[in-house]
Amino acid sequence: MTLRVQALSKHYGDTPVFANVSLDVAPGEFVAIVGESGVGKSTLLNCMAGLDHWDSGSVHLDGADLGLLTDDARALLRRDKVGFVFQAFHVLPHLDVAQNVALPLLLLGTPDDARVEAMLESVGLGGLGSRLPQQLSGGQLQRVAIARALVHRPSLLLADEPTGNLDPTTAALVMRALVEQTRLHGASLVLVTHSHAATQQADRVLTLRADGIAAR
Ligand SMILES: Nc1ncnc2c1ncn2[C@@H]1O[C@H](COP(=O)(O)OP(=O)(O)OP(=O)(O)O)[C@@H](O)[C@H]1O
Ligand SMILES: [Mg+2]
Predict the structure, then answer these.
(1) What is the pTM for the complete model shown?
(2) Which architecture, in CATH terms, is 3-215?
């Protein structure tokens, strides 16, 4: 899908977070976003998914102006087309691993156990479907979140430091799964990361600053 962010500005109370952020992501493109801690990367990603509000500017997904949609329409658009890997995972504690990963498919009315298992395999969690989240390591939890974000083959994947808690070997495995799955389905990928290994695979790397975003 196409993602267009135009002159986006956001503040919390009196504190500005970022201003004048504009970027375009083409269908199938992989854009990495880097920037100092606290500069607003997670906030920007949330805005791209319509999960947070902004003060001025606009976000368009496939031409739809997120700011003009109702909450319900935004939720539907997200359900159909967007995958999100949260920095804090947001894995549901009372569901087992397979049920967590299956959630987007259930919401779409298209359950598919085989696809869930294949997704778990691709992030190195094959056979762990019946574990509860509390029985997993931080890195394994992160991979559950990644499998869940990819399972319904979204046309836009927004991933917030998805390799942040992983050792280099597992990080490489997860990056390969992310890039392979998005390329396979022609999905666009916006990845927030501090990892040099991850940015190397991107088509473009952008740096977020308080006053905008620019090519690194
Ligand atoms: N709900 C909130 N209320 C007030 N301020 C907030 C809120 N959420 C985030 N902030 C502030 O907004 C700024 C941007 O936060 P954000 O989480 O987007 O940064 P980040 O670039 O993702 O940082 P990191 O690399 O550490 O994850 C920070 O200064 C943070 O303290
Ligand atoms: Mg963040």
Answers:
(1) 0.94
(2) 3-Layer(aba) Sandwich (3.40)
